[in-house]
Design goal:
The protein contains 9 helices and 9 strands. It is an alpha/beta fold. Strands 1, 2, 3, 4, 5, 6, 7, 8 and 9 form a 9-stranded mixed β-sheet that branches. A hairpin with a 5-residue loop joins β2 and β3. α1 packs parallel to α3 and α4 crosses α5. The longest helix has 15 residues. The radius of gyration is 17 Å and the shape is globular. The site of magnesium ion has 3 residues, from β2.
């Protein structure tokens, strides 16, 4: 499978300088020179994939309570930008469909992280992947579908087998390479804190691109690239991109 992942991937858009997982965050990542972003997808009560990291609305919107208890119409009433700064007031929580339309327009690619509410692991992957398959232009770079949840990765494989899957883990522990193979993943996405050079070598020797998160410091970024890491998922794509040039 031909992947076209650049060395710098904006995290939740460009999380350091815009309200995460919103359309302005995608635009900001693009403005900073990122050609790919990572974002989190979960379902509304009525089953619509939206961009949202947390299980609750509290931190990133003017709403309160569980995302899974609110319909899209209710969530669209909320402000998802004012918490970050007054210049972002009026920003809405985007649907996956809106985010894909913007990224296609900007010529960007993406890593969709399936971030299900508890109990909705398979459903979130199935519905989100189906929408990606339906709406994402075939001429654009093929997206990577990642998740911490093995049930989500398994559902992605079952329903949208040709979309590449990313094995997401805070830390590569136990027989992680076997898990990557069992889940039939194409890429490996470890957190940077406990990652070792030997693990990167093992992953690369086995033929897997490695995308590391969330790398916001230039010396660490350079070290990871020197280990052979393929991509850095960063809150500050402009600054980290410039630092590793
Ligand atoms: O996909 C990489 C990273 O986003 C995983 O952690 O909590 O930021 O979604 P989190
Ligand atoms: Mg994420």
């Amino acid at each position: 499978m031909k992947l076209d992942i650049p060395p710098i991937v904006g995290h939740r858009g460009a999380k350091a300088s815009s309200p995460e997982n919103t359309l302005p965050a995608i635009e900001e990542a693009h403005r900073q020179g990122a050609t790919w972003i990572e974002f989190d997808a979960k379902l509304t009560k009525d089953g619509v994939p939206i961009l949202m990291h947390d299980e609750t609305l509290d931190r990133c919107t003017t709403g309160k309570g569980n995302v899974a208890d609110h319909t899209l119409a209710q969530i669209r009433e909320l402000d998802a930008g004012a918490w970050f700064g007054p210049q972002f007031k009026g920003t809405k929580v985007p649907t996956l469909e809106e985010a894909m339309a913007l990224m296609a327009k900007l010529g960007m690619g993406f890593n969709i992280e399936i971030k299900p509410c508890p109990g909705r692991e398979a459903e979130t992957a199935r519905i989100s992947c189906a929408l990606v398959e339906k709406l994402w232009p075939k001429s654009s770079p093929i997206p990577v579908v990642s998740s911490f949840k093995h049930l989500s990765l398994a559902a992605a494989k079952a329903h949208s087998a040709h979309l590449p899957r990313g094995y997401l883990a805070e830390e590569l522990i136990g027989d992680w390479l076997e898990a990557v193979k069992v889940l039939d993943c194409t890429t490996i996405h470890p957190g940077f804190r406990k990652l070792t050079q030997a693990q990167v070598r093992t992953a690369k020797d086995a033929g897997y691109p490695v995308l590391v998160w969330t790398v916001n410091e230039a010396p660490k970024a350079k070290e990871l690239l020197s280990w052979g890491v393929d991509a850095l998922i960063t809150d500050a794509p402009g600054a980290i991109g410039a630092a590793v040039k």
